[in-house]
Structure formats: structure tokens, C-alpha cells
Amino acid sequence: MTDRALVVVRPGALTTVQDLGRPGYAHLGVPRSGALDPGAAALVNRLTGNPPDAAVLETTVDGCALRARSTVTVAVGGAPCPVTVGGRPAPWGAPVMVPAGALLEVGAAVAGVRCYVAVRGGIAVEPVLGSRATDLLSGLGPAPLAEGTVLPLGRPAGPPARVDGAPQPGPPAELVLRVTPGPRADWFTARALRDLATRAYRVSPASNRIGLRTEGPALERARDAELPSEGMVLGAVQVPPDGRPVVFLADHPTTGGYPVIAVVRPTDLAAAAQAVPGTPVRFVPVRRW
Question: Which of 20, 57, 85, 188 gives a 20 to 30 Å CA spacing to 103?
Fold first, then answer.
């Protein structure tokens, strides 16, 4: 039994181990996975002195609680949330020392969806295909956290950052997604293309790590033929039979049989990770259809 570990006391609605993911295996049917808000994950790693590829925890909506077996340094970022150590308030977005035996409580997000917890040394679960990321679609990587899960920690690579806190972007009040035409834009009517670019959509509660689902006007297809499965990329805007766009996120399937009307710029996807249900969504074309 290692002393450098965290024990899960409360796993929350969905807490997973994430890192930079496992790109380069789409030809084997393996999604990229990795942190949905990579900027937030990178920042908490920097705050604890970890390298960029160190594994962190990604919580969903209601946080988690962890007990330290030894004294560790942690940082919590991403969606703003209350943080306590041993029942006492602790800073969010800054390095925090958690004494051996103390309980780190990451509370529910007060804005946004996903919080990130980095521990100095990183979460040292066994890597799969070069990554420690949990992939909900393929089942690769460690299972989502459960009560009693023991998370081993790696050796510290450097000292924690010497800062009182670090600025982080707030969750979007409106999610603006810049898009370029997809490979199947011609499967949709001119009205559908116009609706995507001008009509109002909202983030659906059915969204998850696989895709951000939307509520709003159905997009009319110009072709009703069946489309053979073809490769899918991060940010693809796929339109299923109900006509409501779905934006593929980190755990998306590598192939799909519904037409892709557009593709979101990768730099806009981090905001999608923090958009709560009901957030207005605008698709903004950056190239002519």
C-alpha cells in the first residue's frame, strides 16, 4: 500500500481521470478522449508543478471528495466552485496544501459544468495506449471514480507555482462556435444552412463527453439517402434524424453514419465543455457555404 495516494470518499455525479488523451488511434476505432477543457487542466497542472501531460481529475456538476494518505499539494480550477480542506475554506485556482488524513472537498460548480483537480505528481493510474484518460465510449482507461477508489500519485516533477491565484475564463453566457462547412453540407437545403447560421439554439441537458447536443430548429435535409459510415473528427457537427445539431467532443465515435454539416474550430470547444444546459448557442460560419 502506497502512502502517496488519494482515497475517493464521494465520487460525485461523474468524475474521471483525464490527461491530453490518446490521439493518433482513430484508424483503430479509438477516440482521442482527454480533458474536455484542456486549458483548465493545463493550468491546474502548472499550479502544482506538474508537466502538461500529467493526469488530473475532471468532475461534472457536483464535484467530489478525496482523502489524502500523505501531505499533498493540489489545485482546483475550471468551473468555479467552493473548496474546503479539513472542513475549512480553501482557495480555488491556486495551490493548496492538503495534510495527511485531511479531506479535500470539491463542491458543486457555481457556474459552468466541469472542475479540474490536479495533485502534485499527477494521478498515476496505469496508462492505456500511452494515456491515463478515461474514455466513456470505448471503455479504455480507468473506470469513473467510485467510493473507495484509491488513486496512486506519481513523483513530483517540480515545485508548485509561486502565485496567489491565476486568471481563468468564466463559463460562457452564450456559446459562440465558429464553423467551417462540413463534408456533407450539400446534403442540406439552403434554408437549413441559413438556419444553422442565423437561428437560436440551446445546450441540451442530454449533452455529455461524447457530444454537445442542442435544442432548436430542425435542419432540413436535401437528400434522404443513407450515408455509409465515414470518419468523424473532433468538433464535427453531425445532424441525426431529429435534425438537431450535435457537436462531437473528446469521446466522440471515430466513424458515423449521419451527415456532418459543419466543423467547429478546435479552440472553441473548451467553452462547450463549460456550457450549462440552456446556454444559448450560435454557430458562426467563418467560410462561405
Answer: 20
